[in-house]
Amino acid sequence: MNDKIFLQGLEFYAYHGALAAENEIGQIFTVDIEMKVDLKEAGQSDRVEDTVHYGEVYEDVKAIMEGEPVNLLEHLAERIAMRINSHYNRVMETKVRITKKNPPIPGYYKGVGIEIVREK
């Protein structure tokens, strides 16, 4: 089964990071979510109850990203994946990718970040 629901390019201004400057100044984080879900029933029924409401997933991600600051992106990603996998029965696997666009490190890059995949 290769069906997926995704939320791509969610942006949040938050204060996460291991460096003091990140906690004081904050920065933009980009979050991508991909959920493995069997979409056949929803495709046949045309009922939102037969799928995962991505508006609700967005609100869950927003609450975590804009919530209390943490040191590691890994921790944020785990919290997001755990929330999705435990709250949405139809989700079989969740991929979370978090990117810091402008971390306070020297160099030229489009971003730095992490990606995790968690099965239910």
Automatic annotation (TrEMBL):
Residues 5-118 form the Dihydroneopterin aldolase/epimerase domain. GO terms for cellular component: cytoplasm. Pfam families: FolB (PF02152). GO terms for biological process: folic acid biosynthetic process; tetrahydrofolate biosynthetic process. It is an enzyme of class 4 (lyase). Keywords: Folate biosynthesis, Lyase. It catalyses: 7,8-dihydroneopterin = 6-hydroxymethyl-7,8-dihydropterin + glycolaldehyde; 7,8-dihydroneopterin = 7,8-dihydromonapterin. InterPro entries: Dihydroneopterin_aldolase, FolB_dom, GTP-CH-I_C/QueF. It comes from the Bacteria. One of its GO terms (molecular function) is dihydroneopterin aldolase activity. Pathway: Cofactor biosynthesis; tetrahydrofolate biosynthesis; 2-amino-4-hydroxy-6-hydroxymethyl-7,8-dihydropteridine diphosphate from 7,8-dihydroneopterin triphosphate: step 3/4. The keyword Lyase applies. Its EC number is 4.1.2.25. Catalyzes the conversion of 7,8-dihydroneopterin to 6-hydroxymethyl-7,8-dihydropterin. Can also catalyze the epimerization of carbon 2' of dihydroneopterin to dihydromonapterin. Belongs to the DHNA family. NCBIfam families: folB, folB_dom. Homooctamer. Four molecules assemble into a ring, and two rings come together to give a cylinder with a hole of at least 13 a diameter. This is 7,8-dihydroneopterin aldolase.
